Recover the amino acids of this structure.
């Protein structure tokens, strides 16, 4: 297998010694089938053990390894080195404070996910003796796409609104809330209304569509947000009641 | 809530804006262009209002306004406004297809595939344009 | 600003309704009124008598007032977001009050001009 020497410019930030982020260059011999994550692990293993970065499954299902590669938010486990020419620039996700090197502070992101109450809400919980909830394939189809989110936060890194409105609840959270609003078992529409209806809710979105462009799981959060806007308006105007619609 | 609320957080570096915003990356450029259509469409409305105002002032004012709008600069501006408006229509229709593709309250998800949902409104728009142009041109 | 935020769904539906109105009617109005008629390419379609008869009729007045007003509110909302994207959070009050303020002025002007037809 051919080896290729690739130059990586990696953003470093060590709060104990750096006032501001700086770039550090590494030269890595990459195999033909390597992804950027492989190169970062090679740097950490063989060249510079002080480099900090998050990763886990290395196969695009855990959502841990999101970073900017040449300015674009990608999962580094899915970004093949051979698809890039010249120097490869690796930075932590935009729109998030940087904790250290390529690791960002995701507390705000997690709080936003929690704010949309991403669980089945029932007015009255069904007793176990009443049996399971039945859901047809068609009912599942209505929300399934929006349930595929792996919380990688690439959509937050790509969103131009978040740069100026950091409190914007954001694409993943809205898609997640919308997933539950669409779930035939759920009756929690009214509970999620508050998170959606505020000016940091769905209406802060100005339809850049970048979230859907970068999403590695084809969730299409932009679609969820636009549907949520119309549904939310109809409820706000009391044209539709705030409840489950099955 | 952190697992160790008493743990000290280290100093973080501030969040950075998305790379290439607003003009450095093609998709962000298109997004800003789409937003800029609003300026040109507003200009178009002002132009229409100018014309209606002239219309209310009588035939001389109307013909003078028509002659004024025929000038090269005004014609160029009008064509620019029209260009931006058409760009707006295509991109706005594209958004609309995403809204229409899912359940809205009790209204179920339509059985049509996404490309059809996108093309149908466009067909509707163009039909209306032709009808309206025919009315303005005295054919209807 | 609190009131602006409370009414976000309203600004959005005006944006949406204005957008659809623009999609349906604006290109033809602009092409016919601002380009073809001044260039003499509409025949007698918009000669004074006919143009005034069309515009000043009850249907014409309603149509013109509704279309232009809705499109102006659409543009206002979009311009507000454009200002936010380019100018940052600090511009939020100016963006909101400026845009919607201009839309109010535009609405008044439209109603006045259409009424005078």
């Amino acid at each position: 297998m051919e080896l290729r020497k690739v130059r990586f410019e990696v953003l470093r930030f060590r709060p104990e010694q750096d006032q501001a982020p700086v770039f550090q260059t590494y030269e890595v011999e990459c195999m033909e089938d390597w992804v950027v994550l492989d190169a970062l692990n090679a740097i950490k293993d063989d060249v510079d053990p002080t480099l900090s970065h998050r990763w886990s499954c290395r196969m695009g299902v855990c959502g841990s390894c999101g970073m900017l590669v040449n300015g674009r938010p990608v999962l580094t486990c899915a970004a093949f080195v051979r698809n890039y020419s010249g120097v490869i620039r690796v930075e932590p996700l935009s729109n998030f404070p940087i904790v250290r090197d390529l690791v960002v502070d995701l507390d705000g992101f997690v709080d936003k996910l929690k704010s949309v109450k991403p669980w089945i809400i029932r007015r009255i919980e069904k007793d176990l003796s009443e049996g399971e909830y039945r859901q047809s394939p068609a009912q599942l189809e209505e929300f399934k796409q929006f349930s595929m989110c792996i919380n990688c936060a690439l959509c937050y890194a790509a969103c131009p609104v978040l740069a100026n409105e950091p409190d914007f609840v954001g694409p993943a959270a809205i898609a997640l809330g919308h997933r539950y609003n669409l779930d035939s078992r759920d009756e929690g529409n009214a509970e999620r209304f508050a998170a959606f209806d505020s000016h940091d809710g769905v209406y802060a979105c100005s339809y850049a569509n970048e979230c859907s462009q970068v999403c590695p799981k084809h969730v299409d959060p932009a679609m969820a947000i636009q549907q949520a806007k119309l549904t939310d308006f109809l409820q706000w105007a009391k044209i539709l009641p705030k409840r489950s619609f099955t | 809530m952190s697992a160790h609320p008493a743990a000290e957080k280290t100093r973080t570096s501030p969040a950075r804006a998305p790379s290439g915003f607003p003009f450095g990356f093609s998709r962000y450029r298109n997004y800003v262009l789409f937003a800029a259509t609003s300026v040109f469409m507003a200009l178009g409305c002002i132009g229409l209002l100018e014309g209606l105002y002239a219309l209310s002032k009588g035939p001389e004012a109307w013909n003078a306004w028509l002659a004024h709008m025929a000038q090269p600069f005004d014609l160029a501006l009008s064509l620019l406004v029209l260009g931006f408006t058409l760009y707006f229509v295509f991109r706005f229709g594209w958004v609309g297809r995403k809204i229409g593709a899912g359940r809205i309250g009790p209204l179920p998800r339509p059985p049509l595939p996404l490309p059809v949902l996108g093309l149908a409104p466009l067909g509707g728009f163009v039909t209306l344009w032709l009808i309206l142009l025919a009315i303005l041109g005295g054919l209807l | 600003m609190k009131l602006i935020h409370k009414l976000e769904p309203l600004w959005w539906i005006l944006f949406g309704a204005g957008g659809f109105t623009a999609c349906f009617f604006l290109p033809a109005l602009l092409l016919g009124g601002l380009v073809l008629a001044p260039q003499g390419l509409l025949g007698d379609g918009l000669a004074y008598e006919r143009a005034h008869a069309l515009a000043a009729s009850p249907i014409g007045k309603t149509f013109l007032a509704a279309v232009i007003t809705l499109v102006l509110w659409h543009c206002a909302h979009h311009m507000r977001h454009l200002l936010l994207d380019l100018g940052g959070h600090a511009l939020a009050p100016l963006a909101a009050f400026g845009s919607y303020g201009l839309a109010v002025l535009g609405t008044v002007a439209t109603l006045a001009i259409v009424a005078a037809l």
